[in-house]
Amino acid sequence: MRLLAVADLHYSLPQFDWVLEIAADFDVVVLAGDLLELASIVDRRAQAVVVRKYFERLRAVTRLLICSGNHDLDAPHESGEKVAKWLAASPDDGIITDGESIELDGVLITVCPWWDGPITRAGIAVQLAEAAKAERRLWIWIHHAPPDKSPTSWGGARHFGDAELVQWIMQYKPDIVLSGHVHQSPFVKDGSWVDRIGNTWVFNAGQQFGAPPTHIIIDTDEGEALWFSSAGNQFIRLRDPLERPVAKLEAIPDWLKAADPPPLPEQA
Ligand SMILES: [Fe+2]
Predict the structure, then answer these.
(1) CB neighbours (10 Å) of residue 148?
(2) For residue 106, how far is its CA from the centre of ligand 1 (angstroms)?
(3) Cα(161) to centroid of ligand 1, in Å?
(4) Which of 112, 193, 205, 206 pairs with 229 at a CA distance of 20 to 30 A?
(5) Would the pTM of this model clear 0.90, i.e. be above it?
């Protein structure tokens, strides 16, 4: 399975355009939260309408999986906690979103909501316990906040990760967790786009302005994950231990070339 993961597009339409342009080259496209931008001058209801149009167009060319981030919460749940109701506005749209899992060719992918309080958090615990019963070759989680005390949640002065997620990772040992949220992690000293907790690979692509967005390409058959950013490109092999410094990606691998890949972003 070939997967493209981005997060934190924050209503950047050039970034949505870029994702749309290359989406058909991937079996799965993951938008790991913060699709909308709270501080935008554009009303978030209007943002949601525009972004849902992108979802439709992406859905027409690939499998689309989307989790909510803290910028995406638009409505109170009956519990009083905020949820991203607009994400699930059309249950039959074929998009896998908060609270759902899908199995694709032996790869189970579970999409977790942003939790705004103990009820949603408890819902994730139930969701993971249920999903854990399914047969799978690989298990991938999509969860906007990265794990706490990880280079993927390091902001330069402190961590901004989710301690609960660390417990869930240790309990269920997923193979891969795709997150976002802490924009600067890959770009600050002691931060990174990749980490390992036990045998679980954890990723946070980070955030940059303009197109292309920072992004991660994973091919589960090739066993590689590549990170692309304006500050440089790196890669890891999923079957090898994590080594730091993480290896630079000097050239596009042959397996990706065959898929008519996006051009390498210019080095800063
Ligand atoms: Fe964000």
Answers:
(1) 17
(2) 30
(3) 12
(4) 112
(5) yes
Cα 200 to middle of ligand 1, angstroms: 23
Q: What are phi and psi of 244, to 5 degrees?
A: -120, 145
* Residue 77, pLDDT above cutoff 90: no
The secondary element (H helix, E strand) that includes residue 83 is strand 82-83
Residue-wise pLDDT for 146-182, tens only, equals: 999 999 999 999 999 999 999 999 999 999 999 999 9
Q: CA–CA distance from 19 to each of 41, 50, 87, 220 (Å)? A: 23, 15, 18, 20
Enumerate the β-bridge partners of residue 193. Answer: none
Q: How far is the CA of 105 from the centre of ligand 1 (A)?
A: 31
Region 14-30: mean pLDDT is 97
Whose structure tokens read 């410094």?
245
Burial class (CB in 10 A: 0-12, 13-18, 19+), 175: middle
Q: How confident is the model at residue 97 (pLDDT cuts 50, 70, 90)?
A: very high
- The CA 237 to ligand 1 mean position distance, Å, reads 27
Beta-sheet pairing, 194-197 with 200-204: antiparallel
Taking the centre of ligand 1 as the mean of its atom positions, its distance from the CA of residue 254, in whole angstroms, is 32
> For residue 132, how far is its CA from the centre of ligand 1 (angstroms)?
28
